[in-house]
Amino acid sequence: MEILIDSANIKEIIRLIDLYPIDGVTTNPTIIAKEKETFLPLVQEIKRHIGYEKTLHVQTLSTEANDIVNEALHLTDQLDGNVYVKIPVIPEGIKAMKTLHQDGVKLTATAVITPLQALMAAKAGADYVAPYVNRVSNLSVDGTKVVGEIVNLFNIYQISTKVLGASFKNVDQIKQVALNGSHAITASPDMIDAIQEHLLTEWSVNQFSSDWKKAFGEDAVPFFK
Ligand code: G3P
After folding, report:
1. What distance in angstroms lies between residue 80's CA and the mean position of ligand 1's atoms?
2. CA 155 from centroid of its chain's CA atoms
3. Is residue 223 in some structural domain?
4. Domain count, the chain
């Protein structure tokens, strides 16, 4: 499963890529706005820091197909490397995806709420579809189950588009989408940290160290001293 950082904060991106096997970064207009930086230089700086291979997903703002296409082409012209243009699955977004797919632009269909929206986006040429798990769950529909249904649909019709679970408010949601076969997830820095950090793990490590030092002395760590 691919793990991506859903943030435009350069410091957090650098920190998490240093710690974890991160596959890429996703952004959206809200995430960009939070940084209060000029858009294009910020995403170009993110791309520089993550390198050519890791994926960077950058979202368009327009709502008319022609404008979306123009935004997308401008983005791919200004950004080098493994860049995916994120386009919301509004009808005009699907129309834009059809054109951009034919132009060879890599696409992430975003703001996906239902499995059929994802299916339509995949047919239009999306390389990833991003269902918003927590936002769906806030509608009293299990967002993690929607991810499973999309994965199932793509298996039934042998669709190579990847499911990129997004919008998580707790680690259990991430676990459930992983169990449901999501090909990728994108999560905020604090959610990614929460995946790995556990008090009992920390307690166990401290216990190992304490027992070792009791037996071999306070300065017996690392063991090769
Ligand atoms: O990429 C979409 C994601 O950032 C939405 O997350 O937490 O605003 O629902 P959230």
Report:
1. 25
2. 21
3. no
4. 1
The answer to whether 188 touches 166, Cβ cutoff 8 Å, is no
Domain-located, residue 198: yes
What is the position in ligand 1's atom list of the atom closest to the CA of 59? Answer: 1
Cβ 107 vs Cβ 117: under 8 Å: no
Q: Is the pTM of this model over 0.85?
A: yes
Q: Closest ligand 1 atom, CA of 167?
A: 6
What is the span of the domain harbouring residue 131?
2-216
* CA dihedral sign of residues 159, 160, 164, 165: positive
**Which residues, judged by CB distance below 6 Å to any ligand atom, belong to the binding site of ligand 1?**
6, 26, 28, 132, 134-135, 166-167
Nearest CA to ligand 1 atom 3: 167
Question: pLDDT tens, 121-164?
Answer: 999 999 999 999 999 999 999 999 999 999 999 999 999 999 99
Among all residues, which ones are annotated catalytic?
A: 86
Assigned domain for 222 exists: no
- Asked if the structure places residue 224 within a domain, the reply is no
CA 165 to chain CA mean position, Å: 7
Residue count of the chain: 225
Q: 213 CA to middle of ligand 1, Å?
A: 45
**Closest residue (by CA) to atom 10 of ligand 1?**
167
Q: pLDDT, tens digit, for every residue of 82-95?
A: 999 999 999 999 99
